[in-house]
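Backbone-to-sequence.
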């Protein structure tokens, strides 16, 4: 037996379980790092909840980026099936992110005031993982990368997401390879620019929706994208209402306009033609 292998036995009811460990649960998950990362800056009871919710959300977003990036790679090689599985998993992750706002909403304005000043200029607006997800879904805005300029690794990651095709761009390239009339301007362009809706793209989706049995895989993929955006917008809405509930219309930390900024974000669309076509099919 090596030094790392510790023979252990545990009595559970009438059974005795034996196993050899080369690594234990806490070590595998590096819980010493995770569970000691909650460094409170005040004596407020509610600051612990505030930190943990945001840390957990960042972990879920890391998994979203992992799944989204893999799905995008699958699209490049026309593997829609595996990509759909990954997007379905993201939908479940999004449920956890949405639920986090329900927990945070148990905090009252008075509770938040007990530690808000300790946040300084830190703001969720500065989440580079959120920005990578948003860019990967297609909401490109070059001005948004400036918030990460002081951290080169984060800046490079966000800049890469800005300058590469979004999941919708890759979808349109896939449609073109499948014989649909997608404008050249939407197949090869400056990916850092915001997406512009196209009547021809909408027409292609209309054909897919009207003949769903003939284009079942693409039809299902379109619905997966709609579900992805729907849940993202639900997350945004829950965020906005939670902020409104806690700070009203006060300015947010980091200088944002708070609820006003969050409400404007609700008007943004990632996949506009997939929403427009629902009126005409």
């Amino acid at each position: 037996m090596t030094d790392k292998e510790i023979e252990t036995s545990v009595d559970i009811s009438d059974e005795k379980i034996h196993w050899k460990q080369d690594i234990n649960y806490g070590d595998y998950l590096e819980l010493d790092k995770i569970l000691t990362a909650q460094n409170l800056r005040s004596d407020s009871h509610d600051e612990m909840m505030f930190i943990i919710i945001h840390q957990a959300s960042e972990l879920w977003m890391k998994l979203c980026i992992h799944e989204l990036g893999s799905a995008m790679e699958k699209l490049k090689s026309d593997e829609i099936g595996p990509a759909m599985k990954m997007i379905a998993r993201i939908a479940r992750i999004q449920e956890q992110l949405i639920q986090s706002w329900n927990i945070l909403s148990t905090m009252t304005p008075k509770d938040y005031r007990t530690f808000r000043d300790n946040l300084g200029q830190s703001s969720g607006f500065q989440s580079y993982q959120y920005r990578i997800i948003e860019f990967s879904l297609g909401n490109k805005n070059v001005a948004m990368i400036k918030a990460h300029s002081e951290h080169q690794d984060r800046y490079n990651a966000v800049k890469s997401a800005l300058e590469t095709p979004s999941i919708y761009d890759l979808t349109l390239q896939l449609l073109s390879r499948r014989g649909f009339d997608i404008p050249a301007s939407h197949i090869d362009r400056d990916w850092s620019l915001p997406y512009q809706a196209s009547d021809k793209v909408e027409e292609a989706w209309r054909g897919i929706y009207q003949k769903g049995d003939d284009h079942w895989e693409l039809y299902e993929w379109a619905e997966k994208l709609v579900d992805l955006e729907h849940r993202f917008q639900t997350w945004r809405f829950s965020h906005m209402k939670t902020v409104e509930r806690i700070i009203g219309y006060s300015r947010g930390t980091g200088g944002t306009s708070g609820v006003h900024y969050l409400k404007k974000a609700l008007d943004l669309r990632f996949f506009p033609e997939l929403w427009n076509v629902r009126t005409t099919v």
